[in-house]
Amino acid sequence: MYTRAYSAFTDEGKFCGVITVGVVARHFCSGLGLCQGEAVDINRIALNGEQPNISQIMAVVLKRIRDDLPCAKIVISYADTGAGHCGIVYQACNFIYLGRRKGCAEYMSPDGVRINQRTLTSMPKGMRTHYTAIPGTDKFLYAYPLVKRWRRILLERATGLHPPKSVTDDT
User: Fold this and answer.
1) pLDDT in tens, 113-147
2) Rg, C-alpha atoms of the chain
3) Which of the 8 DSSP states describes residue 151?
4) CA–CA separation, 43 vs 2, rounded Å?
5) What's the rounded Cα separation, in Å, for the pair 156 and 70?
6) Which of helix, strand or coil describes residue 130?
7) Taking 60 as the threshold, does the pLDDT of residue 167 lie above it?
């Protein structure tokens, strides 16, 4: 597994954050008929608010992914409903909405920090007892085709409707 980080800067050269990507899990790839390495995941978008336009930064990152990872056919990303996200950035960048996914189990520390199961199991056993299991939050799944023929394939799997602009809006 590898991770790549793409730094974002304003037109004036001021640092405004980073977007990281990594290889998608093998079980997800095989479900789409892809080999591992043919799908990459936007793991994190960490921007400081200085950027003028997030979708413009995403467009540059998508081009860089296409150039840096020639085997990649699609980029996926999840919008976390637990953080109040519904994927507005992905919608603005013409990602294809593939539906809502059930969240995996999460764990809460005594001071309110949420972590996933992978993080918990990587901790020393003595530290794990301080965390309480809680239900995971659902995620909205988006995909962006890097190869033309994958646009059609992803559109065939699309649910058709984007999630509401607000995660709390059920209409």
Assistant:
1) 888 787 888 888 888 888 888 888 888 999 999 99
2) 17
3) H
4) 11
5) 24
6) coil
7) no
Nearest to 68 by CA among 3, 149, 151: 3
CA distance 36 to 28: 9
| Listed residue (65, 84, 67) closest to 76, CA to CA | 65
Please write down the HEC assignment for all residues of 42-110: EEEEEECCCCCCHHHHHHHHHHHHHHHCCCCCEEEEEEEHHHCCCCHHHHHCCCEEEEEECCCCEEECC
- pLDDT band at 170, cuts 50/70/90? very low
Would you say 48 and 7 are in contact if contact means Cβ atoms under 8 Å apart?
no
* pLDDT tens digits for range 79-107: 888 778 888 899 999 999 998 888 778 88
| Beta strands at 39-47 and 74-80: parallel, antiparallel or unpaired | parallel
Name the residue among 143, 111, 132 with its Cα closest to residue 28: 143
Which residue, 63, 55, 62, 47, is CA-closest to 9? 47
The DSSP annotation for 3-24 comes to EEEEEEE-TT--EEEEEEEEEP
Q: How many residues does the chain have?
A: 171
